[in-house]
Design goal:
heterodimer; A: mainly alpha; 14 helices; 68% helix; B: alpha+beta; five-stranded antiparallel beta sheet; two-stranded antiparallel sheet; 22 helices; 70% helix; 6% strand; elongated
């Protein structure tokens, strides 16, 4: 019942979820069951690429939740994404076992290379999938909770908040670049072999990860819809539009903000955890402020405060990026820069703004 | 061939034995007095001890011809030959053999074949003696710099003779700088070879000296000293030196911190204007700095051979280039986004990407080489342990100059008055007849122009490349946020504080960790004081 209520009036979301369902059912079949010579065959490369886009879409939904409905422009969501990715990466590293270049049964290759004798304490437990999965959600969540608690309590808002979230991801990037941190330094974590016993290179695992990403996106989308259609969501919109007034009416503005902010960070962490096994590497570059700000433009292109717009924007911009960088590598930054300028100037409501006006939802 | 060789060796051994006895008989005689002609044959001897005597004797003559001979020996250019006069020759390799020269008269002795001469072998003791001898001779050189260097050479490996030579020179020396070095050299040499009284006197001379040689000498002395008084005095002196060195190290760190701070202030001050006065987040600020740095490069390319003066052209040029870009950005993009700071952030970020790619496409994706003018290289020596590089000093002064200029513009000019009026109350300013659109464009142009000028300064410190702006954007925002928006003094104090804090943390935390700690500190600081060190007061602050 909750789902029905959440999607009521959300035509864009219904269409998006329906398309997602069809794609999720059809693509793995076309990949696995249709022979490679056939016109209808979808290559594993494409499946993985689509899976990657879906994790980006989930990340964009997380950003839209805080930006569109809470008015917080986070320039640090890439950090939560990367932290989730690192948690998954640590699990995948431990799964390599003694198949690494140095063949050490316990230590990942980079630690052997750095002459470390034992596993750092924070790597304990990451040999178990459930623990890693929990950490992929908890670590970004707790970081966002602490950060948000401190920031919202002292009423850091607007551009100040944007700038310190950017400083947060920048500081994390510098920290993860250090070898002493114990996360592989500059090279990050890579050379993964298998996930839950499934070979990461096999077509079946790739298709499975694609389906998992689609499911995560659908569930994440529904969860966000439930939040924004609930009482909490209405208070959030009130905070976005008139924070002081909401506070004076008697709402605990900080609690609402920190709760939604932490939830959004957890979604980003899930997206990161699904992203890493598909691309096969996680390194500190994922923390770069450029990534975080780029994902804001996905949301802006799609149309903020619509949620489905974030999905559309993430898919479109990333598809554009893949094609553009392959065809005219020089021109991509011009195109991205122009996108930033034109969308903010001419399309403040994004692509969703073109669609017929929605009924109040 | 074989017979000749063994014959040769036999004669050489006998000769060496004979010379050794001779040398033993005339030990001090040779060393103390005598002419160069008398001392020279000792060099041809087989025994190293005899050669060493001869070197000291030659050095003691003070003969002007002695210096090149010892140098030739050290360089391995001095050879002996049999059955011809003079027996010692300076030989240089030619295509077919050796070209010979008389070491005393410098006369050309013609060419000989390969086997006619034999190199004088050296060992380490002899090399040391040679360097000492050369230093003794150079102590009387007419060039003060050469004398100073010689004194330093002598203190590295002193002997009673070299101390004597140093003392003699000290009495005659007129040049103050050389005298200082000589006093130091005598004291350091006395530490090694002097009597206990001389050592004690030397320790008191060296107390408080910052020369590394003084500290080394004292450390060696403490390790080997048997006399308790001398040892205690030396330990006291060493403690005093170490404490002074610590203070000098702190002063140096402070200087590095202020230097970093001056760069941060330069980078942030333009941002403080656009952010503080106009409420505009200009993410392209770093790229406007990059344009300034590239202007410096292009000016240098346009004026080859004028590197020393090109900066004076580059500073106004960079101000104009970046300023015009700034006005163009304001007129085409930002003016449509006033009152929507988050949107300006995104739009100017897009502009920063376009500017980066523009430079990559038009000029080069690689870093370009910007030359430093000669007057900015070198350093100001405060004392032996503390030297401040001129380029950092000039940039520090330049940052303060820009700061004062900007302060004057805002406080003393009509434009400044209008800028402040618009920033405090836009509607009221417009009602009073201020053309706020024009003021906005000029303010943004001013902020951008200052970014360009900052870029000129940066081009003298770091690599100039398309990505250079990104490295500074977060740091400069941190400075503005830390110092307080809309307050130039806040930017100055904030930038300097962050620069100094960063450099003081670096020794124990490492450069990267220090930077992380500063970022974490600001994130925590902004919790306590969300509007920075110097918040803007009045109604304008009620955002």
């Amino acid at each position: 019942m909750g789902i029905v209520k959440a999607l009521k009036g959300d035509t864009g979301g219904q269409v998006m979820l329906a398309v997602l369902l069809v794609v999720t059912l059809v693509v793995p079949v076309l990949n696995l069951a249709v022979p490679e010579t056939s016109f209808w065959h979808v290559s594993t490369y494409t499946v993985t690429l689509l899976g990657k886009y879906l994790t980006y879409a989930l990340l964009a939904v997380a950003v839209d939740l805080v930006w569109g409905y809470l008015g917080i422009l986070s320039l640090g969501h890439g950090a939560f994404f990367a932290l989730g990715g690192y948690a998954m990466g640590m699990y995948l590293m431990r799964q390599i076992g003694d198949r690494g270049v140095y063949g050490d049964p316990l230590l990942p290759d980079f630690m052997v290379f750095l002459n470390w004798k034992e596993l750092p304490w924070f790597w304990n437990g990451f040999d178990m999938f459930w623990f890693a999965a929990l950490m992929a959600i908890l670590v970004p969540g707790v970081l966002a909770y602490v950060f948000g608690y401190l920031a919202f309590r002292s009423r850091v808002t607007g551009v100040y908040l944007s700038i310190i979230t950017q400083a947060l991801t920048y500081a994390l990037m510098l920290a993860f670049f250090r070898n002493e941190m114990g996360f592989g330094g500059n090279n990050g974590l890579t050379d993964f072999k298998e996930l839950l016993g499934f070979d990461l290179q096999s077509d079946g695992t790739r298709a499975g990860l694609f389906i998992a990403s689609a499911a995560a996106l659908a569930l994440g989308y529904l969860a966000c819809r439930m939040i924004v259609t609930s009482r909490l969501g209405r208070v959030a919109v009130a905070i976005r539009d008139a924070e002081s007034r909401t506070r004076f009416i008697g709402y605990r503005v900080e609690r609402v903000k920190v709760a939604i902010f932490a939830f959004s960070a957890m979604l980003a962490g899930v997206a990161g955890a699904l992203y890493v096994p598909q691309v096969g590497i996680i390194n500190p570059g994922e923390f770069s402020p450029l990534n975080s700000i780029e994902l804001v433009i996905w949301v802006a292109v799609g149309g903020r405060a619509t949620l489905y717009g974030a999905v559309v924007g993430a898919l479109m911009v990333n598809y554009g990026k893949s094609t553009f960088t392959a065809m005219f590598p020089e021109a991509w930054l011009f195109a991205l820069g122009a996108l930033f300028v034109l969308v903010t100037l001419l399309l403040p409501r994004g692509i969703a703004g073109w669609l017929p006006a929605r009924r109040a939802g | 061939m074989r017979i000749t060789a063994s014959h040769h060796r036999g004669r050489g051994l006998a000769g060496a034995f004979f010379s050794l006895i001779l040398a033993g008989m005339t030990w001090w005689g040779t060393a103390a007095a005598g002419t160069l002609e008398e001392a020279l044959p000792g060099l041809a001897d087989r025994a190293f001890a005899v050669k060493q005597q001869a070197v000291q004797a030659i050095a003691a003559t003070g003969d002007s011809r002695a210096f090149p001979i010892l140098q030739a020996l050290l360089a391995g250019d001095l050879y002996t030959r049999e059955g011809a006069d003079p027996p010692l020759v300076v030989a240089r390799r030619t295509g077919t053999g050796w070209s010979l020269r008389d070491p005393l008269t410098r006369a050309d002795l013609g060419e000989v074949e390969w086997e006619a001469v034999k190199k004088i072998p050296l060992n380490n003791a002899l090399r040391t003696a040679l360097r000492g001898g050369i230093a003794t001779l150079t102590l009387s050189s007419p060039d003060p710099a050469v004398r100073s260097r010689a004194a330093k050479d002598l203190m590295r490996d002193p002997s009673p003779e070299s101390v004597a030579a140093l003392r003699v020179r000290l009495e005659q020396e007129q040049d103050a700088a050389v005298r200082t070095t000589l006093v130091l050299a005598v004291a350091v040499a006395d530490l090694r070879v002097g009597t206990p009284e001389a050592r004690l006197a030397a320790v008191s001379t060296l107390e408080g000296s910052l020369h590394p040689e003084a500290r080394n000498g004292l450390t060696t002395l403490i390790a080997n000293e048997t006399n308790a008084d001398v040892k205690a005095a030396a330990e006291r002196a060493l403690t005093a030196i170490d404490s002074r060195l610590t203070w000098n190290a702190r002063a140096e760190t402070l200087f590095f911190g202020l230097s970093l701070g001056s760069v941060l202030v330069l980078a942030a001050i333009g941002l403080a204007i656009t952010f503080g006065v106009m409420g505009v987040i200009n993410m392209a600020h770093g790229e406007l700095m990059m344009l300034g740095a590239y202007t410096t490069y292009l000016v240098q390319q346009a004026l080859p051979g004028w590197v020393d003066y090109s900066l004076f052209v580059a500073i106004p040029a960079a101000f104009i280039v970046s300023g015009l870009f700034g006005i163009a950005i304001e007129r085409t993009v930002i003016r449509f986004l006033y009152g929507r700071p988050l949107e300006t952030l995104l739009a100017t970020f897009g502009i920063s990407l376009i500017l980066q790619q523009l430079v990559r496409t038009v000029i080069s994706a690689q870093n370009v080489a910007v030359e430093n003018p000669s007057w900015m290289s070198g350093s100001l020596h405060i004392n032996p342990a503390l030297a401040l590089t001129y380029n950092r000093l000039y940039i520090l002064a330049f940052a303060l100059l820009v700061f004062v200029a900007l302060l004057l513009i805002l406080k003393r000019t009509a434009l400044g008055l209008q800028v402040r009026a618009v920033s405090q109350n836009r509607a009221m300013a417009r009602a009073m007849g201020v053309r706020s659109a024009r003021v906005d464009a000029l303010t943004f142009g001013l902020g951008a122009g200052i970014a360009g000028v900052a870029g000129v300064a940066l081009s003298q410190l770091t690599n100039v490349g398309p990505n250079m702006g990104q490295a500074y954007i977060i740091d400069s925002f941190m400075v503005v946020v830390f110092g307080g928006v809309g307050n130039l003094w806040g930017t100055l104090i904030g930038g300097m504080t962050l620069g100094v804090a960063n450099k003081f943390m670096e020794p124990w935390a490492g450069a990267v960790l220090a930077k992380i700690l500063v970022l974490v500190f600001i994130i925590l600081f902004i919790q306590k004081r969300p509007r920075g060190l110097f918040p803007q007061r009045g109604r304008a602050a009620d955002g």
